[in-house]
From TrEMBL:
Pfam families: Methyltransf_3. PROSITE patterns: SAM_OMT_I. The keyword Lipid biosynthesis does not apply. Keywords: Methyltransferase, S-adenosyl-L-methionine, Transferase. It comes from the Bacteria. This is O-methyltransferase. One of its GO terms (biological process) is methylation. GO terms for molecular function: O-methyltransferase activity; S-adenosylmethionine-dependent methyltransferase activity. CDD domains: AdoMet_MTases.
Amino acid sequence: MDRNLPPDETEYILSHSSKANEALEWLTRQTNLRTNHARMLSDGIQGLFLATVSRMTAPDRILEIGTFTGYSAICLAEGLNEGGILDTLEINDELSDIILEAFERSGHSGKIRLHIGDAKKTLSSLPGPYDLVYIDADKREYCEYYSLVFDKVRKGGIIIADNVLWDGKIFSGTSAPKDRQSTGIMAFNDLVASDERVSSMILPLRDGLNIICKR
């Protein structure tokens, strides 16, 4: 199920929205040239959405689980308060060079701390509290990430999880998907919907964003 907007609509939206950080154009090209998974990159509209949420909430501390090449981290960093910090977690150390160069080009390198390693282990060493959390990593582990970060999020803080509509696979007909990534996303969405500690909604932007506010 393709939720991408037609090119003319995308162009219109981007041309009538705030200008994105110039480093993102460089990063998009480099991600396509230097990685085999460029489809994992956030697109322009989703990036602007993340930057807008960050600016609206003016966070002091942001946590991102799943850096990839750094596109979403740069967008999220746009709204950090002066002196604010974004901790971003990535398991693939081979991406370090492109990530760090992108952060430098964006002007946000002093605000972003890159942590390479297993996210679940890294989370245990990060005390919080966080104002804004963005989850875009191994879909099989979304429920675990949610449980690990929940107490690190301040009251009124926001958690955003990406890919929660999972290309339509999770509601694709009579037979439920059996692969672990699909079942992980389904379990996560069920967990959030039943969690009385939060209010939430799924926004059908790109592949779906679950926007969760801690009560």
